[in-house]
Description:
By secondary structure, the protein is of the alpha/beta class. 42% of the residues lie in helices and 17% in strands. The protein has a single domain, classed as Aldolase class I (TIM Barrel, Alpha-Beta Barrel), CATH 3.20.20. It has helices at 2-7, 19-22, 27-36, 51-67, 78-84, 98-104, 118-127, 151-158, 175-180, 190-193, 198-207; strands at residues 13-17, 41-44, 71-75, 88-91, 110-114, 131-134, 164-167, 185-188. Helix 3 (27-36) runs parallel beside helix 4 and helix 4 (51-67) packs across helix 5.
Amino acid sequence: MLRKKALYPKLRLMLVAGKKDAGQRTVSELALLAFQGGVSALQLREKSLDDNQFYDQALELRALSKEHNKLFIINNRVDIALAVDADGVHLGESDLNVATAAKLLSKDKIIGYSASSAVKAKEAILKGADYLGVGALYPSPSKPEAKQIDADTISSIIALKWPTVGIGGITTENAHLAWAYGFNGLALISALAQAQDPTQAAKKILAGCI
């Protein structure tokens, strides 16, 4: 219970980004601007770099996150997370399973899991997931292939009383609707990465929190 309580504020607003998402900025530049707006966690989701480039990027962002006392999560790659001593990993249903990741990581590391149903969410919790990613809430320009999740499924996952983070198509305009579901936090890609002013965008999204 103490671990859960300590995790809630760290998950309040998460930037999910990689090199391609950051556009004209570097991921570090984007992350710093987002941190200044209240973003509490950074999840590095990198699809376009080779392993050495990924490692270098992760090492730089690990240092930046630590300097600003922000949570640093690696998407999918448990090996990279271990190599740079990240705070944890985020796994999808087709990634390495939660139980195996939990065996590889030390007990102080965090495991997030993208759950598409309450059944899969329960399984992940039993295997060691510390928080659940739930989405896509809305059509997502960053991940157009992502299937939207319905309101009943969202409610059934939130009813498990486990840390939950909503993701997918969240904008400054609809963030108040996403908060209304009762999520403990929101994860953002385009809303911050494509914003002219990521700092102000983050502040606006947090201001919509109920």
